[in-house]
Design brief:
By secondary structure, the chain is an alpha/beta fold. It has helices at residues 2-9, 13-21, 69-77, 88-94, 117-122, 139-143, 158-172, 176-199, 229-236, 288-291, 294-297, 314-327, and strands at 46-50, 53-57, 64-66, 84-85, 107-108, 127-131, 148-151, 206-215, 218-224, 240-241, 252-255, 268-272, 301-303. The strands form three sheets. Strands 8, 9, 10, 11, 12 and 13 form a six-stranded mixed beta sheet that branches. Strands 5-4-3-6-7 form a five-stranded parallel beta sheet. A two-stranded antiparallel ribbon has the order 1-2. Helix 4 links the parallel strand 4 and strand 5. Helix 7 packs antiparallel against helix 8, helix 8 packs parallel to helix 12 and helix 9 (229-236) crosses helix 12 (314-327).
Length: 330
């Protein structure tokens, strides 16, 4: 049923728009205004490091509004139910990792890019968590409601950034001990998958990881480099990336079907695509370039579950490893 809902909710250009909306940019250690909004910068019992400097809180936050799905996923992983989240339907469509489902009763506060300030204020939160790039226009207004934690996802190396941001968020809600356990699941799952690959004679297997969708009537393919979180997660399991394209801020190279000829020839092609918009089994199926690729001719083009989110938090990272193991049949 979940897969069907994803398929109905997403298609064609809508997928491209949703994927584009998921992206942002930034650099580790970036600091703009040091206030972070609200009560930040004042003496407090908790100091949290954010993209905009240190935010001080008098006590662990209890009523949290999140305006970015990654941080909603992370709160849920910590056992914290946010009082508000931006775009509940979108979260349920894209974030499908085990244990990441949004609990009942979370108020939808609108679009991630343009949330309802009125709804947020009505919830009387003691903390608001945002993506720094997406929320720049609203930071001042949000800071007048509650302290704001503004994080950047794409800072290199992304795995280190995920761990740092997750740990700081956990500190803000009094869940530092739980954070260590959640992050430990990534390394444990990676070691487990590596062991299974080695046992199956597939240790160090070369792969290429893609996300495919249709944009303006043509297949658009995002290839994940080692700069991406997904590439770094699979590297933990000993897998070798056979895509060396120029990465963007998110660690991706966007290509058409001709670009796939640059995938290293001995690579297994792993991909994520929505049921309702799968160019690999749809528009490209009869394409001579696609049909001529080694990994296609040798049946090494393998689908991961359409709900595998490549840009999420620690639970999504574990899901990437799980789905890769399933696809490789180990």
């Amino acid at each position: 049923m979940r897969r069907m809902l994803r398929a109905l909710a997403i298609g064609g250009t809508a997928v491209a728009m949703a994927l584009t909306a998921a992206c942002g940019s930034g650099t580790v250690g970036e600091t703009g205004d040091k206030t972070g909004g609200g009560k930040a910068g004042t003496a407090g019992a908790i100091s949290v490091e954010t993209a905009r400097g240190t935010v001080s809180l008098p006590a662990p936050a209890k009523k949290v509004v999140t305006l970015e799905w990654t941080y909603t996923e992370e709160l849920v992983a910590l056992g914290v139910t946010p009082v508000g989240n931006a775009d509940n339907k979108g979260y349920g469509t894209w974030i499908t990792a085990e244990g990441a489902a949004l609990p009942a009763g979370v108020t939808d506060v609108g679009n991630r890019n343009e949330p309802s300030l009125e709804k947020i204020k009505a919830l009387q939160p003691d903390l608001i968590v945002v993506d720094d790039d997406r929320s720049k226009a609203n930071l001042k207004a949000l800071g007048e409601i509650a302290p704001v934690l503004s994080f950047v996802y794409t800072t290199k190396p992304q795995m280190q950034t995920l761990k740092k941001n997750f740990t700081e968020l956990a500190k803000a809600v009094g869940k530092e001990d739980a954070a260590a356990g959640v992050l430990g699941k990534i390394d444990a799952k990676a070691a487990e998958l590596k062991g299974r690959l080695d046992k199956a004679g597939k240790g160090g297997l070369k792969y290429a990881l893609a996300q495919g969708f249709t944009a303006n009537g043509s297949a658009s393919i995002r290839m994940l480099t080692d700069d991406s979180l997904a590439g770094q997660v699979l590297g933990l399991a000993g897998l070798k990336n056979g895509w060396k394209g120029q990465p963007d801020a998110w660690g991706m190279t966007t290509v058409g079907v001709e670009g796939l000829t640059k995938v290293e020839k001995d690579s297994t092609f792993l991909y994520v695509a929505a049921d309702a918009d799968n160019p690999f089994t749809g528009s490209l199926a009869g394409n001579p370039v696609w049909k001529g690729l080694d990994f296609v001719k040798q049946d090494r083009a393998l689908a991961l579950d359409p709900g595998t989110w490549l840009f999420g938090g620690p639970l999504s990272a574990v899901q990437i490893l799980d789905e890769t193991g399933k696809a490789l049949k180990v």
